[in-house]
């Protein structure tokens, strides 16, 4: 049976060029939503151990959404660009007439002990992973309130936003921050029927999740490996982004109407091990 649970709705997805962001765009479109997709499509943090997304990656996301029969407005915008996000939201509302779903997915991860990373490495992570979500919220919320349709905001935190791990304290700080932002925003937006929840993946099969520079950290500090345990469920490989998208589509729709200010684990029980 075809899922049309999001028919007539419009979803705004950051970090949409590849990985989780692309998967979320495609799955939301498959459920009937039109898509607003943004990604920096350029290097964003010098310390990252994996290649950045490209304009071609974003173009492929567009093609995949259109193959689902949905409309898409895509733009190369860095989430740190608050004005760029506001302009994109204004253009999206002009084109689609509404905004119902937001997936604040864009984020980066790099490695190093906290007292050894540079000030720039710290700032890049906080600016993208936390301030980027703040910028997204400031851009989308007025349009969602004005539309008067309620809606769902989904922030992508991390298992490391609940259970800190060594070697990426700056990343943990940013993702713990996303949880606080999410919970406070949920209380503030409740009167407008807008729900706000965070998702907490662990070990996902994306360019970020496959960053081999982590191996050097564990080689240099082998006792850190004990903090990266498998989950309670069989864990033979990294989690497919599409499995995370199952949760995104559910949170975006009416089936999760009772849920707000919740932290949804997507980590096979890792947080309980």
From TrEMBL:
The keyword Protein biosynthesis does not apply. The keyword NAD applies. It comes from Mycobacterium dioxanotrophicus. Gene3D superfamilies: NAD(P)-binding Rossmann-like Domain. One of its GO terms (molecular function) is oxidoreductase activity. InterPro entries: NAD(P)-bd_dom_sf, Sc_DH/Rdtase_CS, SDR_fam, SDR_subfam_1. Belongs to the short-chain dehydrogenases/reductases (SDR) family. The lineage of its organism: Bacteria, Bacillati, Actinomycetota, Actinomycetes, Mycobacteriales. Keywords: NAD, Oxidoreductase. It comes from the Bacteria. This is 3-oxoacyl-[acyl-carrier-protein] reductase.
């Amino acid at each position: 049976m075809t899922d049309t649970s999001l028919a007539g709705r419009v979803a705004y997805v950051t970090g949409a060029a590849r990985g989780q962001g692309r998967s979320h765009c495609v799955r939301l479109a498959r459920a009937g939503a039109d898509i607003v997709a943004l990604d920096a499509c350029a290097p964003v943090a010098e310390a990252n151990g994996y290649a950045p997304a490209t304009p071609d990656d974003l173009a492929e996301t567009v093609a995949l959404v259109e193959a689902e029969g949905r409309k898409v407005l895509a733009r190369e915008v860095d989430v740190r660009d608050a004005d760029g996000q506001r302009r994109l939201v204004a253009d999206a509302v002009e084109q689609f007439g509404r905004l119902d779903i937001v997936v604040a997915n864009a984020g980066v991860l790099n490695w190093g002990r906290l007292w050894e990373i540079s000030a720039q490495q710290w700032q890049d992570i906080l600016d993208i992973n936390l301030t980027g979500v703040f910028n997204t919220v400031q851009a989308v919320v007025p349009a969602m309130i004005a539309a008067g349709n309620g809606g769902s905001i989904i922030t992508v935190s991390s298992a490391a936003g609940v259970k800190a791990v060594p070697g990426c304290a700056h990343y943990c700080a940013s993702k713990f921050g996303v949880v606080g932002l999410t919970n406070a925003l949920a209380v503030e937006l409740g009167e407008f029927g807008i729900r706000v929840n965070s998702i907490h993946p662990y070990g996902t099969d994306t360019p970020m999740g496959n960053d081999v520079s982590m191996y050097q950290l564990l080689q240099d500090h082998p006792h850190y490996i004990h903090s990266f345990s498998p989950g309670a469920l069989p864990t033979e490989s990294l989690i497919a982004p599409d499995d995370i998208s199952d949760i995104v589509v559910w949170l975006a729709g009416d089936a999760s109407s009772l849920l707000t200010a919740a932290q949804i684990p997507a980590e096979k029980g890792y947080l309980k091990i």
